[in-house]
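We modelled the chain as a single entity of 466 amino acids. Its sequence is:
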Amino acid sequence: MSSSAVTPESPPRDERARRRLALIGGSLGNLVEWYDWFVYASFAIYFADSFFPGDNPTTQLMNTAGIFAVGFLMRPVGGWVLGRAADRHGRKSALTLTVTMMSVAALLIAVAPTYGQAGYFGALVLLIARLLQGMSIGGEYAASATYLTEASARNRRGLGSSFQYVSMTCGQLLGLGILITMQHTLTPAQLSGWGWRIPFVVGALFAVVVFWLRRRLQETDAFTEESSSDGAARDDSPRGSLKALWQHRRQAGLVMALTLGGTVAYYTYTTYLTKYLVGSAGMAKTTATLVSFTALTLFAVLQPFAGMLSDRIGRRPLLITFAVGCTVGTYPIMTALGSADSYWPALGLSLLALVIVTGYTSINAAVKAELFPTHVRALGVALPYAIANALFGGTAEYVALWFKSGGHEKMFFWYVSGCALVSLVTYVLMPDTRNAALSRAEAASDGGPRGGDDGPSVKAAAGAAR
């Protein structure tokens, strides 16, 4: 091969620059989306009594957690509508639309009247905003997971897709950072009175900047290929449709099964962790927030390394390691966290849990995208993931608080372990997706089918979903 030849291991300089720009653009937008989503959970301990009267803090948190969970119910709708848009009109257009919706939702929360000002009308505004956020996030996951995976070099898809959870976590860290700053500059009364509105205003402003940025992203090669003259000659009416997804229903079932344990564990050790440390361990709010902030910072740093590892050894080893660790480790870790009364023990245990969860978070976007062909990839990633997320991830915090209010808090630990066990069976049965071809060009270089087509590996993977 001549020195001028280009190999997958050494793409031309302009190609590397384009991929870096796509990675940055897609990640920054995802960061803002998830900042707005998670800041609700981070600040709930301060605004819960503004919308729901009563003297029981647990009941107030359950009400706000209920609205948080309801937002997840819109994720399947967003996954369907925006996933279809991403498959039919491009990943870029869907990414732009999701961040616009999130900006509007953040503004609604920022101006929502309290119970004292308008009774339960404020809670209604809060509910509408969360439904809009849920729809936006449902589409965001599909578009960003597909975009980051398709925009990455084939031998670095694990690394590229890992930035989805890097950006998700950095969005949460940004929210926690603002919370920590406000905790040290405002009094608790000021935070509960009006300070909690500030992060939602900030989120709306961030979204405007990201809207401008996403308008300048390039479409992925895989989608451009599908929309080329060769692809346009085909009947593309099923593109991104439920009919097209039904043809890959077994892969969709596989996505739901492999998501189950990961989404419950992730929300347990991220959004619920601060409340658990405050409500069950008796830790001060400021200390619990600092524990979460530090643990999540290191968690974000871990993601690319785990993604790179999956590019070398495959996806299944990481997924299986996560599921085993979560199945056997949740009860002892959560029990120990419930007795942690200072920063360092709580941080160590939180890090242990998040290291285990990294086996799922770092690569799940790539695994799901590698199961489907281009014409239904975004919808295939979005809809089954959103359904599993709505049923299990979005309700994790509410289930935890429900067990707590009933005096059986430790039953929640077994619930998390049980969900991880279901996913463990899936991971053991499914083949590795690392070498799947995501475009006709990649398939041609292999002499085999594309990811999601009816090749032997995909048929075996689909069989695990039965």
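As a brief sanity check on the tokenised model: DSSP finds 23 helices and no strands in the chain. Residues 13-51 form the longest helix (39 residues).
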